[in-house]
Design brief:
Elements: H1 19-32, H2 36-50, H3 56-60
């Protein structure tokens, strides 16, 4: 049986990205030794921490 995790992750989110965006992610993966999932988690944390500084016009969209 698999290893029990303290904080299991059951939700899956998928998205479509361009070849250029995929290449960018792969470069980040090579530099940081992080998975795409870990990179996206860090990006969400960064976005949430800086959301108040986003242009108000963009928030309304």
């Amino acid at each position: 049986m698999g290893k029990m995790r303290e904080n299991p992750r059951y939700n899956v989110i998928s998205m479509r990205i361009s070849d250029e965006e995929r290449d960018h992610l792969e470069n980040i993966m090579e530099k940081t030794q992080l998975s795409i999932s870990d990179i996206m988690r860090e990006a969400m944390e960064f976005f949430a921490a800086n959301y108040d500084q986003i242009d108000p016009q963009r928030k309304a969209a």
